[in-house]
């Protein structure tokens, strides 16, 4: 236990030394050691996703309907307790805890989307256009948050590895990386950038100003576009049919 604490303290001391050195002038912030990003954005987005899932009809949720939202809150509480203000260095257990949280949110939303699509195809869902649009919008927005979390957690090894500058080859190419003169010298991608990436991919069904470079990034964006397209097309088509 003490060895782990000493190792963490040593890495934090290295960060402080590098931040105080002249490395700032050598490489852009996204390529060098920096402080961890503030936690508030990712925490707020997860709470929004949990709230949205708790509002879904019980027929679209795994039974009991309260179980997964409660589990998500418990996992999130553990992450906040470990790093309350910033997403700082994490051990492997915290890394797996964060991935488990995203998996649970993904499972809950994937199940809801699958049940909704099956109900629309079988004609058992969508008797009320307004309720259908609200449910579809709920699942679509949660899907945006889910994929933003995956992009944020995997790009260049995750937030902790990005903070340490461990991986120099980016999985996502942001505009500020191509044109550093268009951004402040301390700019580096944070969760809100990945949330924007996820939102535009769900609305345009293709990359906009952020390009996927690695194969896993391309496959994940393709999966998100597919889920979003199927959900939107089926929900809107059924709603228009009801209104007519």
- Share of helical residues: 55-70%
Strand content: under 5%
Q: How many individual helices?
A: 9
Mean pLDDT: 84
Taken in chain order, the helices and strands follow as: HHHHHHEHHEH
Note the main sheet: 2 strands, antiparallel
Helix and strand content put the structural class at mainly alpha
Low-confidence sequence ranges: none
- Cα radius of gyration in angstroms: 20 Å
Shape: globular
Number of domains: 1
Quick one: how many beta strands?
Answer: 2
Termini separation comes to 66 Å
Strand order of the largest sheet: 1-2
Overall description:
With 244 residues, this protein is mainly α. It has one domain. It is 66% helix and 2% strand. It has nine helices and two strands. Strands 1-2 form a two-stranded antiparallel sheet. Helix 2 runs antiparallel to helix 3, helix 3 runs antiparallel to helix 4 and helix 5 runs antiparallel to helix 9. The protein is globular. The termini are far apart. The relative contact order is 0.13.
